[in-house]
Design brief:
Layout: E1 8-14, H1 20-31, E2 36-42, H2 53-61, E3 87-90, H3 93-96, E4 108-111, H4 124-146, H5 155-165
Parallel strand pairs: 1-2, 1-3, 3-4
Helix pairs in contact: 1-4, 2-4
């Protein structure tokens, strides 16, 4: 009988940790069926930064729990007592270009770039649609991740697997 592996810890990074990374964290936790545990953080969240209200709205409308979501610095995950990450994914281009902390355990890394749904100053409907489109794009890629066979999620293969998923929009 095989022992089930512990959940794969995934950290989604963005600059402010208010939109894309929050959406990815909530989505993967809802979709991962206990095989994944998602977190999110930002390289430089603003003081008193909160998750974007439109992001929370599209998550709630999609039936995805938002309890406990908060904006936080990536420094929380670079300490010795932080959960050990298996995979770190940047979801915005600016965070991908920044010098990251040294992550304990040397996790696999990948960049899955998405446009910022909170950028721009269109109508409320247009901004809400931008969040909805980003949520759907993240969901498509995360469906690929959660449906991968176990061998593709082993530490030795995870780096190549996660980077290959960047080609799928």
């Amino acid at each position: 009988m095989t022992t089930p592996r512990p959940p794969l810890n995934v950290l989604f990074l963005c600059t402010h940790n208010s939109a894309r990374s929050i959406l990815a964290e909530a989505l993967l936790n809802a979709m991962g069926n206990g095989r994944f545990r998602a977190y999110s953080a930002g390289s430089s969240p603003r003081p008193h930064q909160q998750p974007h209200p439109l992001g929370l709205q599209v998550l709630q409308k999609a039936g995805i729990p938002t309890d406990g979501l908060r904006s936080k610095s990536w420094d929380e995950f670079a300490t010795a007592d932080a959960p050990a990450m298996d995979l770190i994914v940047t979801v915005c281009d600016s965070a991908a270009g920044e010098v990251c902390p040294i992550w304990p355990g040397h996790p696999a890394t990948a960049h899955w770039g998405y446009a910022d749904p909170s950028a721009g100053d269109g109508s409320d409907e247009a901004q809400l649609e931008a969040f909805r489109v980003t949520l759907l794009a993240l969901k498509r890629r995360l469906e690929l991740l959660i449906n991968l066979p176990e061998e593709k999620l082993e530490k030795a293969a995870l780096q190549a697997t996660a980077r290959a998923l960047a080609a799928h929009a």
